[in-house]
Amino acid sequence: LRLSQDQKTIFYHPAMGEAYERQRMLEKGLETALERDELHLYFQPQVSLSTGLIVGAEALLRWQHPGLGNVSPDEFIPVAEATGIIIPIGDWVLRQACEFWGELKQQGIIDQAVVAVNLSAGQFRHTGLVNMIRDIVSVTGMPYDQLELEITESHLMHDLDASVEIMKRLQQLGVALAIDDFGTGYSSLSTLNGFPLDKLKIDRSFVVGIPGNRSNETLVEAIIQMAHALNLKIITEGVETKVQVEWLKKHGSNEIQGYYFSKPLPRDEFVAFIQQGQTL
Ligand code: C2E
Ligand code: CA
Ligand code: CA
Ligand code: CA
Predict the structure, then answer these.
(1) Burial class (CB in 10 A: 0-12, 13-18, 19+), 95
(2) Which end of the chain is more exposed for a tag (fewer CB within 10 A), N or C?
(3) Cα separation of 230 and 259, whole Å?
(4) What residue stretches are annotated with the EAL domain (predicted)?
(5) ipTM topping 0.95
(6) The pTM is what?
């Protein structure tokens, strides 16, 4: 949609014009964000509730825009998805995360821990994902079984047969598959039964008010029980307090991720955190 200055003043309320301008800035900025070195990965530790040890980390994208400052991924990822630029950016994220993990492994800083990478729906359906992962692994020396991909329910609902096919191929390689933000979409646990999955990630919106919020408690209890019945490992995100940790441990969540243990950290701080031997 392109309008002249005059048309704009006629059809747009000033506030709408501002939102439109910002949108355009984000779209334009994303085109050059990679080459201008404005994107960075942070890593948020994931910790086992049975051992208290770090068992993985989620890679989370950060964008420092020259004019707008830090832009939240909740704002720019949807824009990147809409323009299609998420494909090269997503490739970059996967490569960076695996490269970093390969280095940590080589240096003996991590052993068996996994790195979890978020995949956008477009990336997931992009033919060549499996080959790209093969290529990345061969270059970075990162073992397949230390890579986990986080996908959301909407990925699965789009094209069932094609999704299952890609997922099976990834699993055959040894890559683990986690369903992210579980409970926020429309799928039920019985739908999940048909998919080759390893892990279920309970969305942080359900953790709010636990313990105490009876409806959230009941929901999380039900999700955990059924996920276990489907042989899925459970990680709960957005865990911020000690009482939440205790409640989740008691109710069978295998792992947690959240501010209580650590915020997402830039590489050097993440390495320092691991080297200090932090445990829950
Ligand atoms: P997500 O995948 O659900 O990631 C978890 C979000 O919760 C992260 O927000 C993380 O910083 C935040 N978080 C973690 N622990 C806590 C906690 O204890 N309390 C609270 N209040 N928040 C917590 P972030 O980093 O802003 O990312 C937002 C979303 O952007 C992600 O949600 C994910 O959907 C998307 N995203 C981030 N990086 C990537 C990426 O590389 N690729 C794709 N496709 N999406 C990404
Ligand atoms: Ca995620
Ligand atoms: Ca999530
Ligand atoms: Ca989320």
Answers:
(1) middle
(2) N
(3) 28
(4) 23-278
(5) yes
(6) 0.93
Segment 87-110 shows an average pLDDT of: 96
**What three-state secondary structure class fits 30?**
helix
Q: Looking at residue 126, what DSSP letter applies?
A: S
Atom of ligand 1 minimally distant from the CA of 201: 3
Instruction: Look at ligand 1, atom 15, and give the residue with the nearest C-alpha.
Output: 258
Which amino acid appears at position 49 of this protein? L
Query: If you search the block for the tokens 């910002």, which residue do you land on?
Result: 22
Q: Which atom of ligand 1 is nearest to the CA of 41?
A: 41
The dihedral sign for the CA sequence 130, 133, 138, 142: negative
Query: Which residue among 26, 46, 60, 199 is best mutated to probe the pocket of ligand 1, counting the most ligand atoms within 8 A of its Cβ?
Result: 60
26 φ, ψ (degrees, to nearest 5): -65, -45
% residues pLDDT > 70 (the chain)? 94
Between 26-35, 100-109, 222-231, the lowest mean confidence (pLDDT) is in 222-231
Give 229's contacts (C-beta < 8 A, 6+ positions apart).
none
Residue matched to tokens 């996994």: 114
What stretches of the chain show up as alpha helix (H) in DSSP? 5-11, 14-33, 73-83, 86-106, 121-125, 129-140, 153-158, 160-173, 189-192, 214-229, 242-250, 267-275
What CA–CA distance (Å, rounded) separates 147 from 158?
A: 24
Please list every protein residue whose CB sits less than 6 Å from any atom of ligand 1.
44, 60-61, 72-74, 77, 90, 93, 118-120, 180-181, 204, 237-240, 257-259, 264
Number of H helices, E strands in the chain: 12, 10
Distance 111 CA to ligand 3 centre (A): 24
Distance 71 CA to ligand 3 centre (A): 18
SS3 100: helix
Are 141 and 102 in contact, with CB atoms under 8 Å apart? yes
Half-sphere exposure of 62 (CA within 13 A, CB side): 14
